[in-house]
Amino acid sequence: MAAVDSNFLSYKKKPLLSRYLPLLNSTLRRRPSSELGLFFLCQALAVTIVTGVLIFTDRIQTAIFQESAKMMAADLVVQSNGLVDPAWQRQADSLGLQTVQSLRFPSMLFFNDELQLTDIRAVSAAYPLRGELTASNALGAPIIRQQALDVSLPRSGEIWLDARSADALAAKVGDQIEVGHRLLLFTKVLVDEPGSAIPSLGFAGRALIRVVDVESTGLVVAGSRVSYSWMLAGKEKALNVMESWLTPRLDIHHSLVSREAGSQATEDILDRASSFLSLGGAMAVLLAGLAAMISASRFMAGQQDNVAIMRALGASRQQLFAVYFFQLLLFSLLALLLGYAIGFSIQALGFYVLQDVLAIPSEISSASFVAGAVTALFCLVCFAVPTLLGLIKVSPMRLLRSASAQAPQRTGYIIFALGFLCLLFFYSGSWQASLIIYLGIVLLTIAVACVSLLVTKALLLINDHRVVASGSLGSSTAQQFTGNTRSHRLTRESNKNLNRLALRMGMAAFCRQPQTSQLRATALSLTLTVLVVIMSLRLALLADWQTQLPAKAPNFFAVNILSSEVDSFSTYLQREQFERQPIYRVARARLVAINHLSFQEWGVTNADALASLEREMVMTESSELAEDNVLLAGKWHGKGGEVAQVSVEQGIADDLKIGLDDSLHFSFAGQEHVARVTSIRSLDWNSMRPNFYFILSPPNLSHFPFTHMTSFYVGDNQVSLVDELSRQHPSTTLINVGEIIERAQKILTKVSLAVEALAWITVLAGLLVMVASLRMTLDKRLTEQTIFRALGSSASLLKRSLWVELLIGGMLAGVSAVISAQVILYSLGQWVFDMPLLAPLGITVVVILFSMLLVALVGVRVLKSVYQLSPVTIWRGA
Amino acid sequence: MNNDTENTASSGFSLTAKGLIRSLSLSSQTVPIIQGVDLQLSAGETCAIIGASGSGKTTLLGMLAAMDVPNSGSVEIADEDISYSIYQHDEDWRAWLRGSAMGFVFQDFQLVDDMTALDNVLLPLELAGKRLPELGRDWLKRVGLGDRMNHYPRQLSGGEQQRVALARAFANHPRILFADEPTGSLDESTGKAMIELLFELNTASGSTLVMVTHDPVLAQRCDKVYLLKQGRLEPSLEAL
Question: Where are the beta strands (DSSP E) in A563-670?
């Protein structure tokens, strides 16, 4: 056999590289189609969303933890009533953790004839481990930050006083202050030190000294009211090891505070925002994925002839798969890079907006980038590969006989549906939440399909009616079809008829393509639903949060009111007309057993509840039921009786499975006290009033050391009165809750902006679906154009009918979105937020109009090429 | 023309079809298309199949060219050393056979639209694992498209596209060339030029040629002419 290729003799596979390399090489040179471009955009959008959202939420969480650590002056703090076991210090050293010992105690300071009760903090050399100390060289002098301080802490023999203490003592820098048995030199004015329980809360006075000086002052002796803090900081891994090591070694007198726990309040607020971000992100990724699938599907459909050619020329299925997978993979990689860049920029922009309320952490977790890559791969495998598997089965006979081999749409959609469920789980971390959302989307899709069907039927009826009713339409149509006009009057008349005809043709066109119209409407409807829900929630819950509080709701809490000062404190508030709550006796206690059984024996399984039981709770006694408390079961104990009685808050009663007549065992600093449950009550934790899980019948608390607490409202014109109140009651701690709320709200408002921005990105993803689905109809429209134009229809008539068709689709999406959003909002209001919640009418109207305009403008832009073709071109193309 | 091209000029394969039957299922009805076709072509022979529209010419061509599977019957291609029974193997084997032994010229040219003229010519070679850009360039020069190598099909006229298709068909040195209405989409003069080129290249390569056409004049240029009528093949005396 002459000059025969050696490979020809037998069906022997060539080595892998030579089989694929030349082919993949030529794939690189192939001109990308517009559908591939759209696929690329969808992939990039999905990666952008995933990367951007994950980096954003991750960094925001780190920022909150860091903030919390700064407030705590450490990453981990063990609070106790004595020094910690030296073995703990050895363990911390072995893990490479930094440690600081800190003591806090109240004491009277003296200077000349003045005296002032001051909260003294004594610290060791490395303080603060986190956060920053600020001071000034003299009263009223500029504030100096830690880095710029010539001495970062008071030296031994020195004391730093805050302005309030210095003012009260009439002391200046350089004076000798009497602290117990010692005289300490006042060297700097303390502005702010991290590690206060709550920063900037208006303590009566604060002072900072070195631990080494404490003994010589003679202020700390057995029985003194001293709280010890052992502070730790270091790498996260070491901290986690330390925390696990410490937890079983803690007893009732220790409490461990981690930065996560320290930031609980802010974190809770942001948790909801993060959920919105995640779910909004999942929705956007779903839509981007759907658009990717449609564009990939259209790309593959356009490749059927090419595949048939390659099949005829000898391509195996594996080779075809390799060629197209390689091409899609290349575009996915490019999309990944673009997505990374945009996602990173968007989150950076988000932090730019947040910079005045939150310190931006520099570290970025690589997990977000991995998640972006996984999403891109996921979109490729779940949304493009199923269609590709159908494509490579195309028969070469297609070249001889135009029998189109359809890609397996059904399998593709099934894989897509399963893939999306996994994606939701990936985002929410809960199968339950994923299934609920999934079900919601399915219901919405069905709703859109039903509305669409109704609209289609109605349009068909209207069209039929119009045809029957306008007997002359036929003749005028013939005239208008060609767009011929002779006079101005005739022009106006024919224009009117042209519009009428366009309306009819547009309605008919909408009815002719129910599937693609529904797909567009559903996708856009989903995005608009998300947008309406988020905007309405933001308006109702976030911006108006402050107004949700009753007018003159308390904004200051007063704690540690001594019994000897209760009367004067109460009188002062009354005299100066502060709106105040009752003053409660309070003591710290832990619940240690229920009906003589430990919690495990009692069957408490709720992890949160068990964790909360490890901390001491604030207990009170009262004969009166607070006005916002509602009795749900049992009888209010009133003035009580011989047997100790307790009223339990409903939530904790449910968590701990506590019922009426159960015996609760409390430990008050080691002294056990048993009380019988005689009532269960509900209360409003957000009322800013003193609220308690357990209220004992009087006079049970009197057996233990107790102080008092209350809350009151301080108006703008009463701020100076608070200073006077503080001066008159130096041992009382005043906490400006309004300030804390304001800060939290500030963060929340900004984060909600991020959520809303994401909702808009979701709309962008919806737009991509719309573009992809419109492009699906291009070929069909071109064929229709050919026929209509050949029959004499003017381009203007066809354009107008397109506007009608698109506006109907937009209206359908808008109306469905508004209806579903209202249902969702109503449900959220009813079952989650316990308040009437509906989207304002203005928003609903704007959304419907926005939807119509969006669909029309995008649609006209996408289909422009079809409607701009000259009749000759169309004819030739046909 | 480089050595590679010269050296690989090859002789054709013989083709034997026996008892080919093919019917199509249309909803509940089965429509017979080919009802027992026998065909014998010697190596290097040229053959034209003519027939009315819908007579099943394309279906028959598909089966002879290992693209479509008959309901029954066999097709064998062979030279002195080896013979292949086409339908005893799966589609991937047939794809390999098409790539290794066959060349195709279609009525609608069937060029890959996102590849340049050169890449289209190189495609069968690359599918066979060969990277021979020079050979592709030579073939394009040979069909008169030396200056259009980097143009995409849409940038070429119908005649030029069919030339690219010819270059592609011969680039991998086919033993049998199948042509389906090769001038069907071309004007008369372009079609004529194309046929000249096709026969010239075919003669040079020594391939066996099976051509389906409506054109009796074109059919007469072949060694054998068959008429496909009611699913059966009969020698066309009129054409001969």
Answer: 579-580, 584-594, 617-621, 630-634, 645-649, 663-668
